[in-house]
């Protein structure tokens, strides 16, 4: 089983630019840097760079039909869990 690294909210907040872009979704940490240029919603993803997007991701209307793609992409970008 894969052991995931733990990151504090403070750690995640340091990765808040288009060149170094982490997000939190449901207590997991994702490195979305390589996805920044591919995001169909463009730079809107930056609004949550270094932040917890749990309450935002499912409510973007364009995300609903793309949800299976999003889940797959998140899985690829998973780097850790949030240390509470
Ligand atoms: C893991 C993959 C993805 C992540 C982490 C992600 C993340 C985000 C975030 C954080 C926002 C801003 C939400 C807000 O401001 O409330 C956003 C907006 C958006 N996303 Fe994604 N997204 C992903 C995949 C996709 C895909 C596959 C599509 C294709 C339909 C898409 C289309 C959009 C659109 C159209 C917006 C709104 C753009 C705007 O407000 O100008 N996203 N996304």
Describe this structure in words.
It is a single chain. With 84 residues, the chain is of the alpha/beta class. It has a single domain (5-82), classed as Flavocytochrome B2, Chain A, domain 1 (Roll). The protein has three helices and six strands; from the N terminus they run βαββββααβ. Strands 1, 2, 3, 4, 5 and 6 form a six-stranded mixed β-sheet that branches. It is globular and about 30 Å long. The mean pLDDT is 97. The structure holds protoporphyrin IX containing FE.
Helix content: 25-40%
CATH fold-level name: Flavocytochrome B2, Chain A, domain 1
Gross morphology is globular
Q: Could you state the order of secondary-structure elements as H and E? A: EHEEEEHHE
Structural class: alpha/beta
User: Could you list the spans in which at least 5 consecutive residues all have pLDDT below 50?
Assistant: none
CATH hierarchy, class: Alpha Beta
The major beta sheet can be summarized as:
6 strands, mixed
Radius of gyration: 12 Å
By DSSP, the count of extended strands is 6
Proper CATH architecture? Roll
Bound molecules: protoporphyrin IX containing FE
In terms of quaternary structure, the protein is: single chain
Strand content: 25-35%
Number of domains: 1
* Mean pLDDT over all positions: 97
Structure annotation, total helices:
3
- What is the H level of CATH, i.e. the homologous superfamily? Cytochrome b5-like heme/steroid binding domain
Distance between the termini: 22 Å
GO cellular component, one term: cytoplasm
Domain Cytochrome b5 heme-binding: 4-83
InterPro entries: Cyt_B5-like_heme/steroid-bd, Cyt_B5-like_heme/steroid_sf, Cytochrome_b5/Flavoprotein_Rdt
Pfam families: Cyt-b5 (PF00173)
């Amino acid at each position: 089983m894969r052991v995931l690294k733990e990151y504090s909210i403070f750690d995640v907040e340091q990765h808040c630019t288009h060149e170094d872009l982490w997000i939190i979704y449901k207590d997991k940490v994702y490195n979305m840097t390589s996805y920044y240029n591919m995001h169909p919603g463009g730079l809107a993803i930056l609004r949550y760079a270094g932040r917890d997007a749990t309450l935002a991701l499912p409510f973007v209307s364009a995300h609903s039909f793309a949800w299976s793609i999003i889940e797959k992409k998140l899985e690829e970008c998973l780097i850790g869990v949030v240390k509470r």
